[in-house]
Specification:
Layout: H1 9-14, H2 16-26, E1 29-32, E2 37-40, H3 43-50, E3 56-57, H4 64-69, H5 79-89, H6 95-120, E4 122-124, H7 125-142, H8 149-163, H9 170-196, H10 202-208, H11 219-249, H12 252-260, H13 262-276, E5 282-287, E6 291-293, E7 296-298, E8 303-307, H14 308-311, H15 346-363, E9 368-369, E10 377-378, E11 384-385, E12 389-391
Parallel strand pairs: 2-8
Antiparallel strand pairs: 1-2, 3-5, 4-12, 5-8, 6-7, 9-12, 10-11
Helix pairs in contact: 5-10, 6-7, 6-15, 7-8, 7-11, 8-9, 8-11, 11-13, 11-15, 12-13, 13-15
């Protein structure tokens, strides 16, 4: 059996990066039976897949996202349908718009959690800070004001079970289906209200922007994409921030650089953390015809994973790519994807990560990892530390 044929889901979940490195060396485009996907691992090929919708379509015949959330979704459409969905999503998350509201929003959510951590004297930062700040920031920007953090985190973990279920595990699917139905029931009243009384929330923009006077996009048309946005928008900033901080705490000399000049080095740390561990690992496509790529022929109708996580560790682009190094100057990472499916919430996500990390380090400059509790990363489609145990050093009130 070939290397790719021996890859297991468990090995990918534990640590996909050595697997990707071997594939980049020996089989940069390879079919992986365990997940029923063609893996594309090198930067130039990943970029080519994502930027060639005529050959690699976002419309995938057997998509775990559509199986779990319904269709159409903003991830699994091209052409006019995708344009319609982006036209509603983009207004709330443009750079200038984000700059006007993100600071106050994230700070108002983060500070009570920082106060609680100060009282505790220690924290598990994924559950105690990064995930709550991420889930609540996204929900409030959408216009979901009344849904509490435990519910949002439960939604996130349940929806994720469906989105990563490439192997079609019935237990994962059962969890995802139940949460997907719950999410739909919970947010339907908000959408119905916004259809008649618009405001400046992202959900309102999705209903109204670009539509003829007196009309809205149908709720059934938007609902699958709202579930995608809830999952990705809650997951990426919180998990990305956790990986960033794990990198900094594991490299004290780089942490000192950030603490000495947060304005300059927090953004660098954020971008390097996203390169080092991509919170979302793939852009999934389907071939419209047989195509040669990376020395092999991918058949027509095949599901293809353009691995942005692997592209961001491609040795042809990044020196010593497994090393976390905030002083890199080697160009952009691939964590937000490529092409017209480039992450629509990237400005909000990046700003949120910068704010969450900066507020944390300004409040607790003596943070350190708890001895014996080093962060353990899990996941290949969604990857982050499972826990991030820290002590505060000096007790801060």
């Amino acid at each position: 059996m070939s290397f790719a044929e021996n890859i297991t889901v468990e090995a990918l979940e534990a640590d996909p990066y050595p697997i990707y490195a071997e594939l980049r060396r020996s089989a940069p485009v390879a079919f992986v039976p365990a997940v029923n996907l063609w893996f594309v691992t090198r930067w130039k090929d990943v970029e080519s897949v994502a930027k060639s919708p005529d050959i690699f379509s976002a419309v995938v015949g057997s998509s775990p996202v559509e199986r779990s959330f319904g269709k159409p979704t903003i991830l699994t459409t091209d052409g006019e349908t995708h344009k319609q969905l982006r036209q509603g999503v983009d207004p709330k998350y443009r750079p200038r718009t984000v700059a006007a509201y993100a600071g106050d929003l994230v700070r108002s959510i983060a500070e009570p959690y920082l106060d609680r951590i100060a009282e505790q004297g220690a924290a598990e930062l994924m559950a105690d800070y990064f995930e709550p700040v991420s889930t609540l920031s996204l929900a409030r920007s959408l216009g979901l004001a009344d849904i509490d953090m435990p519910t949002l985190r439960r939604w996130f973990y349940g929806l994720a079970q469906g989105a990563i279920n490439f192997e079609n595990d019935p237990k994962r699917q059962e969890i995802a289906d139940a949460i997907s139905a719950e999410v739909g029931d919970a947010i339907l009243p908000t959408l119905e209200r916004l259809a008649h009384a618009p405001d400046d929330s992202a959900l309102s923009h999705m209903l109204h922007d670009g539509m003829p006077e007196g009309t809205t996009r149908p709720i059934d048309f938007l609902m699958p994409s709202i579930k995608v946005i809830l999952l990705g928008g809650m997951q990426e900033p919180g998990h990305g921030a956790g990986s960033i901080l794990a990198g900094l705490l594991s490299h004290p000399e780089q942490l000192r650089q950030v603490l000495a000049d947060p304005e300059s080095f927090v953004p660098k740390a954020v971008d390097e953390g996203l390169r080092w561990v991509a919170p979302i690992g793939t852009q999934t496509r389907q071939t419209t015809r047989a195509v040669e790529l990376g020395g092999v022929t991918i058949p027509a109708g095949a599901a293809v994973a353009a691995l942005v996580s692997s592209a961001s560790r491609d040795e042809s682009r990044f020196a010593d790519p497994n090393r976390f190094d905030i002083n890199r100057d080697e160009g952009n990472h691939a964590a937000f994807g490529f092409g017209h499916h480039f992450c629509s919430g990237r400005f909000f996500a990046r700003e949120q990560m910068c704010l969450a990390v900066r507020l944390l380090l300004l409040r607790f400059p003596d943070l350190s990892l708890v001895p014996g509790k080093a962060p353990v990363f899990r996941g290949w489609e969604f990857r982050a530390p499972t826990t991030l145990h820290v002590s505060l050093g000096v007790r801060h009130q």
